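Summary for the steering committee. One of the milestones for this cycle was to obtain a three-dimensional model of the protein with uridine-5'-diphosphate bound, which we needed before selecting residues for the alanine scan. The sequence and ligand used are listed below.
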Amino acid sequence: MLEGVIGAQRAERLHTVAADFRSRLGNRVIWNFSSTAVSGGVAEMLQVLVGYVEDLGVDMRWTVISGDADFFTVTKRLHNRIHNLPGDGGPLGPAEAAHYDEVLAANAAALRDQVRPGDLVLLHDPQTAGMTSALVSRGAHVVWRCHIGADRQTDLTRSAWEFLRPRIAGADGYIFSRRAYTPSYLPDREIWVIPPSIDPYSAKNQYLDPANVRAILSLTGLIDGTRVEAPGTFVRRDGSAGTVTRPAVVVAEDLPDAGEPLLVQVSRWDRLKDMIGVMRGFADHVAGYGDARLILAGPAAAAVADDPEGAAVYAECLAAWHALPIDRRSRVVLATLPMADVDENAAMVNALQRQAWVIAQKSLAEGFGLTVAEGMWKARPVVGSAVGGIQDQIAEGTGILLPDPTDLSAFGKAVRDLLDDPARAERMGVAAQAFVRENYLGDVHLIRYAQLFGTLMNAEPRRS
Ligand code: UDP
């Protein structure tokens, strides 16, 4: 399946590892539990990996847990603190702990009959961590995978890690995207460092020719569509043809033309992504120097169930956009992309990233930026903050790392330098694509999983 991009040798290695793994797995199932089916890096990655693993003949399933608004307020608090940010500043005391435990106990109870002793379970992120002991006592091999983290531990991060400590205790292994993210209390031998991957054939990353890119963006309402003739098509995950039909909600004085220099950031509406900083950096340090435009795009704010701050953050961006002087405001587009059809949404993101001359990911914290890998895969130079996983992703010569993500003038200068030097931008883009091919495609990821699960299957489950 991946052979076209990874070559025969890497494909053969993957098939050999998979065949060996299948025979050891027998009729056991690999379960993934996460908290949302749409938007965000975890959902994106699981959609891909579950498909690959099925193609390799391994029974891997993915179930989304349920929770109420109070539960997701608590988990968002954990999420923010693990990123060393105060978030809403609310408590993580006994009442929050009790509610968190109650919601996850109910989820675990509903799953008990499905998960069998010996099965392999991957619990994703703090939202599912509290199911660890229930599934361990069911006799499953449980691994907690944390997709987020901060480069250094502080009182704030430690408060979240202490909350999680009893709740992840007893798992057979722990996966982090970077070594620096691990809380100090976890034993080294149980920690696995596995970065995520992207799927080059998904609607998010598949090749789209430039006419199709323009058609998709014009149907979505993101560029001026007067000259569009193509229908705006993409290939769905199941192989069928899709067409973009739903418009985005677009806030703009004026739409970019297809030929204009374009800076794009695609992110959830999360303060950590600093969409407002991108807007101000662009308005103050890029817009006045040339004719470039900026598109800031994210999911329709109400669509992401486990992200209660999304609507508020979008509203802040909107207010900041209105506050821009008109000559700057007219160069910035805010868009919320419909999420009703995941593949269609992915095609829109794909088209935006391909239309971009430069891609920004000016996050204040980032476990691992899938959007960075996606942009790089499209051979675009990414200007990203030197935080978290982005530091590993933007290797020398593949993009520009910003030592201080709050330095808007440095951000603007990095963007301008690339817009003004298309040859350099292109060189970086080519190097970026090669770097992703080498490090962040599914075969590398799956082989790491097979090593981890192989080790666990050799051991007895902790409790049965
Ligand atoms: N994404 C999307 N539609 C949107 C906004 C984001 O599909 O409107 C995707 C984006 O392309 C990427 C993922 O959501 O695949 C975000 O993952 P990332 O690791 O960049 O950040 P996270 O949201 O996990 O913090």
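Key point for the committee: The mean pLDDT is 94.
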